[in-house]
Specification:
By secondary structure, the protein is an alpha+beta fold. Helices cover 42% and strands 14% of the residues. It has four helices and two strands, in the order αββααα. The two termini are 26 Å apart.
């Protein structure tokens, strides 16, 4: 779902690791989309789609908040490569 949403906004999702209470992922976006806006798009659109597909979730998340309010963003560049970030994401597991 996140990959489809990203594609609609000219973004790309790379590595993804889903844990019980959060998700690690890499996302690339064009310069016109600020990191905060990318997070907002992924979180808000996915929430709406989840509620449409699984109406019973509205009872579980009665406030309409599926995602926590925060997020972490780190850009790649000198000293940190895309491959390093994607390896980090893939290494995130429930066992850590």
């Amino acid at each position: 779902m996140l990959r489809a949403i990203a594609a609609q906004y000219d973004m790309q999702i790379g590595a993804v690791e889903c844990l019980a209470d959060h998700i690690h992922l890499t996302c690339s976006a064009p310069p016109r989309i600020a990191p905060a806006r990318a997070a907002q798009i992924l979180k808000s659109v996915s929430t709406r789609k989840l509620f449409e597909e699984f109406p019973w979730l509205k009872r579980e998340y009665w406030g309409g908040e599926v995602w926590a309010g925060g997020y972490f963003v780190r850009s790649i560049g000198p000293g940190l490569t895309k491959e390093q970030v994607e390896r980090y994401v893939r290494e995130q597991t429930a066992e850590l």
